[in-house]
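Model: Ready when you are.
Researcher: Fold this.
Model:
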Amino acid sequence: MQKSILVLNAGSSSLKFSVFDCLNEGQLNQKVTGQVEGIGTAPHLKVKDGNGQSIIDVHWQTTEVANHAQALQKITAVLHRDSSCLMGVGHRVVHGGPDYSAPLLITPEVLDKLETITPLAPLHNPHNLAAIRAMRQECPNLPQ
């Protein structure tokens, strides 16, 4: 089974994602890309393969995907069906304050600190952090 990395970009009403297969010598190959848009209003999942061909296009009732956690559950269900073996998750966090300006492993301490600086990006960071928390709940042992 191919080892993969999931990358998430959470917005106010969408959750964009890409999955990259880890190849030899640290090279990555984009396997799929997609998004759940209309979270809480008119949820819609679109997924394309690495060549840009549409492979999934699904609409749900509002109550089926009312928040980012439910959107993430839909995404991980697709990934499990596709036999992706995730080895880690990367997140786009808009503002890391003065302490976090480069990639780092999300620990409970880092998450707590990011919570305190939410006022620096109030339109973005709450959604970014919601995706981190949802992923922790969905796959608690997966590095993020």
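Researcher: Now this one.
Model:
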Amino acid sequence: MQRLSVMCNDGTNPTDPRVWSDFARRADGVGRGFGSHWTYLSLGCATWPGGPDPDRYTGPWNRETAAPVLVIGNRKGDPATPYEDARTTSRLLADARLLTLDSFGHGARGESACIDGALTAYFTDGTLPAEGAVCEPDRGPFDPVP
């Protein structure tokens, strides 16, 4: 229910059930095969009371912030948040730095000492990683978690 509340309040979803198949097909075109999965996960939004939150932030995204924004992208196949989205986000924001994790899957924290160190530095004193920095994972996608 928590995921649905975020999806329904932050996004604009069709309310007519007859258009969901086409909506899912179009989402696959940009979601590399996972678009329809996410579309159908949000099917409950068709009847969500009140529709999207009128107070949600829809831009502009290029405003100056009090501190630079650290964007982390996972380069090798994150179905929920594709790397290209991280690259686009870092370009849209006025003052952002993209840190790349050269690994598979969703999520970065706890996957790489390099990422964890960058996050600690950023949240402790605002230090950003070097421009173009790439972190390697500490283990492979099928290695056991210590």
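Researcher: Key takeaway?
Model: Residues 69-135 form one domain.
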